[in-house]
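Incident log, structure service

09:12 report received: a user says their structure output differs between two submissions of the same chain.
09:20 pulled the input from the user's history:
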Amino acid sequence: MMDGADDVYLMEHPDSTEDIPVLDIAPYIAGEPGARERLSKELGRISETVGFFQLIGHGLPQSLIDRMFGEARRLHLSPLEKRRTIKNIGRGTYRGIEDRPNISLNQKPRLNSSFNVHREYPPDHPMNDMSTVFRYPNAWPDWLPGFKENVLEYYDRGEALGRLLLPLWAAALDMPVDYFDKYFVDPHITTTLLHYPPQKVMGNRQYGIPPHTDNNFITILAQEDVPGLAVEMPSGHWRIVEPRRGAFVINSGNTMVRISNGRFKSTRHRVINIGEHDRFSVPIFFAPDLEAIVECAPTCVTAENPARYPPIRYEDLFYWHQYSEGARGFEQKAVGPDVKSEGLWVPAQDAK
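09:34 re-ran on a clean worker, output below:
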């Protein structure tokens, strides 16, 4: 078990001074000779050790990021009767607004609320099939002018950034730079506007979001100016990831672990807002097509290190995490069905 008293204490009292790496991709975007090769090697080292880093030089304007924090504040600080008019399709579909009263094993209710958006499809598109899990239309607050337009603009720019990073991840695995193109024809992306009210009491397993790993490929997180995110460092101690204006916090998820055959990490993290002010953050959960087959990359499989994870459709993998074994939450340690090693802990896509 990894949730003993000592482990929980370290989660709730982060004291690590280990470095959170910083990756500047401006030279890569500018096409400087050797930048892709240099940055992919650094990305591989980060993914093997920490699994988290601060991304700078990404090209997204700060004005757009600030607009998203403003929209998160406008929505989540609206009167409750207004927020209740947004269609809440239910936890697990990741559409619309969700307050978080649900309780995980041995934990108290989560102290956050979220608003979730996926790609906006035409009304008659198959991805708007209300009878199928994960294939629901978006729900919008119609009383907030400009909200939908701003969120969708951010969604599109976030997707473009995720795609921009794919050649670096491929090269980090010694694969051709277009290796991940087949995974991301129509990627399953969730953009989430999160609100964490100040938490008055520290400890006793009370979290804004409890310790978990992300199920997706990578997460691209914008933090405003209130800290609260902490990650488990290689020492086993935890570190607060201080907000850095202009930077995104990036972490690799459980899908990356499967593709890399365990080479890359999916690191545990949690949020506790012990400050005096509301915390707002906007993660983008960047994941493959629902129909994509997630399998170990050929360069990560050898006779000495055979594939630990069988191929699986991403939708099936996501469903497994959300509704079967993964729903056990706090105690779960695997990265999918038919896993040949213990792998990870708490593989739920969740908030930051």
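09:41 both user submissions now match this output. Likely a transient worker issue. Closing.
09:42 reviewer note: Residues 8 and 205 are 8 Å apart (CA to CA). The domain at 5-331 is CATH 2.60.120.330 (Jelly Rolls).
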